[in-house]
């Protein structure tokens, strides 16, 4: 390893003061960086944990204020909280802030994450009782509404967040309707086979699940209070609370016209977390980490991965921080296999790999009927993902199969000495994201320019 004197020194600015930003700041200090460090965060509160917001906070077992992230060490940083970054001047190397100040940097880490996708009709979104769920304040407001005992809650979107909200409602005895544009809940993340399991779970727990429909309008009582919604099949839902769970929007608008490869899927970077320009040239002073990033992964044909995963935010932030202060020969790639988990309707769902990067799936252990299983996904004859339902202890085994590009389907008895439960793999039935009312938590974007490029020729 390089000696401390070999570390790069200069001014570092991290834009984004959530999980990725905090872990990057801590890692910089752990790696021996002693230079000036500034963290910019749009929210006024210190970094907090988001997974409990749709679980424990809604159930009332903890409060939104109690979700602050523990720190591994004091990052010794200048915190600029409650002020958003509004622009970037990459030539002058300055971050522009909403309060009119600009911060100079020598190296910049973009970790601005995502925000909740809003309801597209502002006047309907402004109705009292229509709520998003992304921030700590959002969770506190929704928890108060649930504690007040509404007659019915409408959840628009059947992804992980929407499903966890519905689970929290039913656990408290609250009637809930879930409206999902796709064929079933979680279909965008796990494909059609496990979506059927998720649908069965919801209905078994009393959820009024409506699939293949869209919400066409939210209605009020004339006094600004939400009262219900019209659906595309002509039906109407009466409800007191509506939660918009339409997925996430990556916070990249402040990077417009900077020349970086930033667009709807995030900011593109190499495996070392260095941002690309819109022409595919790698930078060496701008790095990216967390939900706002998209990066190539050799296990998934070097397509660009966009992840909304807690573990990815941590590991990528650590890699980015390491590479920001170490010379080229000591830099390392971010090649972690995506891992995700969710608890809903009494089951624990854990995923490793990228289930949407698949063409077939097989139930390798357990069964759909028992709601205890391992589903293994394959693409062109190799294992690319596994999802466990109440069988998380096997996840490590299947992760090793993914990392070694093991043949699909896995050999009989590969995990526990028993033959495969399913005799034949079936299509994984991964839908087109355009048919979902929520975005998948993993997106493979491939080569998809986000704007028309101007070809630059020598001498022009």
Automatic annotation (TrEMBL):
Query: Could you confirm whether the keyword Oxidoreductase appears in this record?
Result: yes
InterPro entries named among the record's database cross-references: FAD-oxidoreductase/Apoptosis, FAD/NAD-bd_sf, FAD/NAD-binding_dom, FAD/NAD-linked_Rdtase_dimer_sf, Reductase_C
Q: Which cofactor does it need?
A: FAD
Among Pfam families, the record links this protein to: Pyr_redox_2, Reductase_C
Q: Which residues form the FAD/NAD(P)-binding domain?
A: 11-317
Residue span(s) of domain Reductase C-terminal: 340-412
Indicate yes or no for the key word Oxidoreductase: yes
Q: Source organism's superkingdom? A: Bacteria
Q: Which UniProt keywords apply?
A: FAD, Flavoprotein, Oxidoreductase
| Name listed for the protein in its UniProt record | FAD-dependent oxidoreductase
What is the source species? Streptomyces olivaceiscleroticus
């Amino acid at each position: 390893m390089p000696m401390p004197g070999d570390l790069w020194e200069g001014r570092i600015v991290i834009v984004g003061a959530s999980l990725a930003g905090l872990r990057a700041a801590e890692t910089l200090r752990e790696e021996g960086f002693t230079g000036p460090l500034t963290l910019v965060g749009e929210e006024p509160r210190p970094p907090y944990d988001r997974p409990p917001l749709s679980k424990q906070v809604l159930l009332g077992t903890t409060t939104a204020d109690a979700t602050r992230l523990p720190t591994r060490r004091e990052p010794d940083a200048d915190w600029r909280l409650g002020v958003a970054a509004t622009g970037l001047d990459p030539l002058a190397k300055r971050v522009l802030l909403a309060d009119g100040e600009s911060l100079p940097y020598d190296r910049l880490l973009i970790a601005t994450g995502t925000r909740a996708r809003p309801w597209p009709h502002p006047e309907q979104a402004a109705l009292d009782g229509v709520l998003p769920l992304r921030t700590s304040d959002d969770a506190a407001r929704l928890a108060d509404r649930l504690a007040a005992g509404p007659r019915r809650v409408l959840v628009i979107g059947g992804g992980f967040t929407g499903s966890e909200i519905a689970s929290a409602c039913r656990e408290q005895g609250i009637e809930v309707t879930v409206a999902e544009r796709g064929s079933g809940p979680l279909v965008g993340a796990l494909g059609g086979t496990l979506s059927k399991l998720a649908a069965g779970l919801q209905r078994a727990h009393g959820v009024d699940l409506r699939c293949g429909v869209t919400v066409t309008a939210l209605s009020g009582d004339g006094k600004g209070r939400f009262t219900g919604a019209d659906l595309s099949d002509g039906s109407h839902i009466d409800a007191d609370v509506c939660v918009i769970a339409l997925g996430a929007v990556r916070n990249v608008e402040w990077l417009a016209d900077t020349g970086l490869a930033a667009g709807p899927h995030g900011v593109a970077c190499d495996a070392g977390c260095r941002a690309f320009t819109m022409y595919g040239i790698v930078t060496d002073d701008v790095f990216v980490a967390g939900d706002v990033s998209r990066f190539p992964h050799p296990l998934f044909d070097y397509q660009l991965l966009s992840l909304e995963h807690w573990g990815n935010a941590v590991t990528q932030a650590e890699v980015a921080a390491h590479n920001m202060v170490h010379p080229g020969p000591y830099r390392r790639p971010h090649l972690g296999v995506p891992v995700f988990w969710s608890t809903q309707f009494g089951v624990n769902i854990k995923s490793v790999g990228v289930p949407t990067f698949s063409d077939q799936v097989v139930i390798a252990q357990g069964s759909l009927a028992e709601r205890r299983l391992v589903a293994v996904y394959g693409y062109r004859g190799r294992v690319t993902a596994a999802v466990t339902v109440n069988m998380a202890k096997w996840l490590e085994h299947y992760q090793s199969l993914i990392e070694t590009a093991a043949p699909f389907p896995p050999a009989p008895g590969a995990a526990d000495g028993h033959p495969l439960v399913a005799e034949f793999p079936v299509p994984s039935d991964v839908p087109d994201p355009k048919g979902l009312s929520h975005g998948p938590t993993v997106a493979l974007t491939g080569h998809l320019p986000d704007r028309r490029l101007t070809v630059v020729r020598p001498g022009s």
